[in-house]
Design brief:
Elements: E1 9-15, H1 23-33, E2 38-44, H2 50-57, E3 62-67, H3 72-78, E4 81-82, H4 84-89, E5 94-98, E6 101-105, H5 108-119, E7 128-132, H6 136-147, E8 152-156, H7 160-170, E9 174-177, H8 182-185, E10 191-194, E11 219-222, H9 231-238, E12 242-244, H10 247-262, H11 270-283
Parallel strand pairs: 1-2, 1-3, 4-6, 7-8, 7-10, 8-9, 10-11, 11-12
Antiparallel strand pairs: 3-5, 5-6
Helix pairs in contact: 1-10, 1-11, 5-6, 5-10
The structure holds 2'-monophosphoadenosine-5'-diphosphate.
2'-monophosphoadenosine-5'-diphosphate is lined by residues 133-138, 157-159, 162, 195-198, 206.
């Protein structure tokens, strides 16, 4: 049913593979909750097929959509216009059409920050973060915390060279380390974020360093959400540290895109979180 004379709008999430994506579930929740006229669908797009997909996207009725693994960098390279945030991160996750031009942004940084603001607002009184990992997710997290005023980001990565590349990208507030520096840096951490796939279901468990040297006020966040209670979060919780799980970032990064395509800024609330967690349970990937 059309509402208020609005035309029916179609949005997508493209990736390869894409069947595991929770995005159709969360956007579908908002569409039905607000009784909006539209659909959000998962479209498998193979590597090498990105240009073909976008060449026919307007014709197929799409107003825009999300871009996920492995296309975030590839789409970054072909859009007509991208904003400063996506340039800083070097990847896009949200696109839309404006006068037949393909526009792009990256909402992962604001998604990460909004989730911390929501779940652990005291994080803003800190100045020093330890970031585990130096991939695309790490770039989004660093971009977000520096924009929020953090003074120091220690990037800890298995491959030091990749951490150094991020220091070159983000500048003098960032420092590159390997894992053996963790315990030395831990006492200064106001925020610890895991952006690696360590702890993700299906990955061989790499041992984590001890969290014993983290100060009592340190907030520990994991962007992995399968499982929701990662080993890192469990270890932090055992030490009475405040923890922030990864599902909230997924929910928060989705809201600005939804507003672009469907015209209403949706709320990230308990109902949405429970709906998405139930879907995860059903898909069998919450363990
Ligand atoms: P994303 O874009 O999701 O961040 P990515 O670019 O592939 O993914 O980055 C994955 C990150 O997880 C990297 O920091 C990687 O470390 P390397 O740069 O040394 O490869 C890290 N990572 C993945 N598996 C790991 C493991 N078993 N132990 C330590 N670090 C790991």
């Amino acid at each position: 049913m059309m509402e208020g004379g609005d035309r029916f709008k179609k949005a997508f999430v493209i990736g390869w593979p894409i069947s595991h994506s929770l995005s159709p579930i969360l956007h579908g929740y908002w569409l039905s909750k607000m009784n909006l006229s539209g659909i959000y669908e998962a479209v498998p797009v193979a590597p090498g097929e990105i240009s073909n997909f976008f060449n026919s996207a307007i014709e197929k009725g799409y107003v825009g959509g999300n871009v996920t693994i492995p296309h975030k960098e590839g789409v970054f390279a072909i859009v007509d216009e991208k904003d400063e945030v996506s340039k800083a991160i070097g990847a896009v996750n949200t696109v839309w059409f404006e006068d037949n031009r393909l526009m792009a942004t990256n909402t992962d940084a604001t998604g990460f920050i909004s989730n911390l603001d929501d779940c652990a607002p005291k994080w803003r009184s800190g100045t020093t973060a330890l970031i585990l990992g130096a991939g695309g997710a790490s770039r989004a997290v660093i971009c977000g915390i520096l924009a929020a005023g953090y003074q120091t980001a220690h990037i800890i990565n298995r491959t030091e060279e990749r951490a150094k590349e991020l220091v070159d990208r983000f500048g003098e507030k960032c420092f590159a380390h390997t894992w053996d520096a963790f315990e030395l840096l831990a006492p200064d951490a106001d925020l610890l974020v895991n952006t690696t796939s360590i702890g993700m279901t299906g990955n061989a468990e790499t041992s984590l360093p001890s969290l014993d040297k983290l100060p009592k006020h340190c907030i520990v966040s994991d962007i992995v959400y399968t499982p929701l209670k990662t080993k890192l979060l469990t270890e932090a919780w055992k030490r009475d540290l405040q923890t922030v799980d990864g599902i909230g970032m997924l929910l928060h990064q989705a809201a600005p895109g939804f507003e672009k395509w469907f015209g209403v800024l949706p709320k990230v609330d308990k109902g949405l979180r429970e709906h998405v967690l139930a879907a995860m349970e059903q898909k069998g990937n919450s363990k």
